[in-house]
Amino acid sequence: MKLTKEFVTLEKSAEKLTVTVDKSEINSIYQKVIKNYTKNAQIPGFRKGHVPANILITKYGDALKADTLNELIDGSLNEIFSDEAEKDHRPLPYAQPVLEKVPEFDLEKDFTYSVTYDVFPKVDVKNFSGITVKEPQVTVGDAELAEELKALQERNAMVTDKKDGEAVAKDDIVTINYSELDDAGNTVEGSKREGFVFTVGTGENIYKIDDEIIGMKKNETKEITKTYAKDDADADLAGKTKKISVTVTALKVKNIPALDDDLAQDVNAKFKTLDDLKADLKRQMETAAARRVKELKNNDLLSQLVEKNAFDLPASMIKAELDGRWNMMAQQFGTTPDQLEKMILASGQTKEVMLEQWTGDSEKMLKSRIIVDNLIRERNISVTPEEIEASYAKIAEEGGMTVEEVKKHYADPRSKEYLIDDAKETKLYDELYKEVKVSKGDKIAFADLFKN
Length: 452
Fold this sequence. Notes:
5-stranded antiparallel beta sheet; 4-stranded antiparallel beta sheet; alpha+beta; 45% helix
């Protein structure tokens, strides 16, 4: 198509494209549209396919012009945006170009129109000055291993009913019915609760009555009067005296398995001894810690790069990201986006407020992702088949699998593409850490490493 084009950069990563199509193209497309109408038009007094052009123009003049304009605009935009040389000027997939105004239709003049749209943000990441990345210090020693083993015992515990007549003790799992009583001994409206389950000693109950129910038996009811400290963390309880009626309806005990070879074999048949389990658990913990430390380092580096290399995000990109998060949240709740909005509204919140709360984190994440993609392209970072093989081997070693099992997992093209992208990012970070300062950060307990 004979045309000229002009791109003008606007604010917030938007562009204005002005296109001028030669008038000869207008006439050619106009005649093509008329020909298509001629084939399909059914007008009384004329055979289908034999309606004279002047009759069609008289009857369908506006429609013919509109179809011609649409073909001119769609055809010219497709030609421009399919040109590899203009890839940096292509609109974002979720932001359709907007026509500024309906252009004039004149077969005697060149056809000119303008559209505005959002493009992928451009950022020139050059400022690395003053960046210091702190690397958290984590130790996986005997104490950390002992905590993980304790948690493993908890996960493999057997919960059984206590015998009739046995009393509530610390660490028992109890089910209670309770209600708050007023001074006259009547139930306070709205305070009644049935079938509440908690572990004695955790304090995970509204009135913190763990100690008070110790010694009670199944089906026993007890009135408890408790005075709370003035500085109690719960403002509804602080400095007050409460009278609570409690009935124990079920009583269970958690039988923690011994830390021995039998437990190791129950966890996985590949373990023969407790030492085998300990060695594998420590390896998993070290791998998890290294991966998390790497993630925290990378996040620290990207936060500083985003701060030092400012650029704007297009509104459509932010909207698409927030919509994606909302839809994902709906999936997690097993509902539709519309139903989720109703659920949120019923809880006293609104979708608009939630999206506004998410915006800051979403913008930071998007900018981080764009900086990474930009640097990978700018530095022409790629990975070789040999490096991918090395990635397979590393994953197999860290996961306690065979290389063949790992390759099977990444057999799907999309999964393998994810692996390739991850390998590119790893190479990028290796380069970047040679250009910035890395210092020792604070010591962090293994368990705290994964909080937040």
